[in-house]
Amino acid sequence: MVSTGLASDPYRAPETLINKGFYAHFPRPPARVGMIQMARSYAKSNDELVAVLTALRKAGAREAAPLWSAVATRLSGPLRNRAEVNLSRIARVAPPGSLVVVPGKVLGAGAIPHAVTVAAFQFSGSARAKIEASGGKALSIGQLIEKSPKGSNVKIVG
């Protein structure tokens, strides 16, 4: 029997189980010597999106806030499934003075008659201008994480 030199390799079954019982019917797994645990990677080429996803997952784990994990899951999906929300929808679902996060892009169709703080991955130019004209704020998702780390009183729209 060849020894890998490692007393406990987490990727291999103990030697006693390999030689008898269930593992006896399968070929011996290759030795994994010198493997390094890599950081989590994303199959996304947009560096800004990867940074936002990392910040969302860290905030969700650090603060035990499932809201940030849910937003990260929605943003990590395909681009064709990403939310595109018009201001008219935000005006319908968000009361004055509320916090709203959009896991996608906010578009400028419609009007928003009251002040709302909106955080999104992207804003169109007209949406940002209309939100600020109504007395609200247009924030990035990272700024909203800093403002409300636990995610309390934040609605996901889209």
Short structural summary:
The chain has 158 residues and is an alpha/beta fold. The protein is built from 6 helices and 5 strands, in the order H-H-H-E-H-E-E-H-E-H-E. The longest helix is centred in the middle third of the chain and has 16 residues, at 47-62.
Description:
This protein has six helices and five strands. It is an alpha/beta fold and 158 residues long. It has a domain at 47-156: Ribosomal Protein L15, Chain: K, domain 2, CATH 3.100.10. The protein is elongated.
Indicate the radius of gyration in whole angstroms.
Answer: 24 Å
The major beta sheet can be summarized as: 5 strands, parallel
Instruction: Examine the secondary-structure arrangement and name the CATH architecture of the domain at 47-156.
Output: Ribosomal Protein L15, Chain: K, domain 2
- Assigned CATH class of the domain at 47-156: Alpha Beta
- How many alpha or pi helices? 6
The proportion of residues forming helix, as a percent range, comes to 25-40%
* Count of extended strands: 5
Write down the overall geometry: elongated
In round numbers, the mean pLDDT is 85
Please give the alpha-carbon distance between the first and last residues: 58 Å
The percent range for strand residues is 15-25%
Report the uncertain regions: none
Structural class: alpha/beta
Element string (H = helix, E = strand) = HHHEHEEHEHE
CATH topology of the domain at 47-156: Ribosomal Protein L15, Chain: K, domain 2
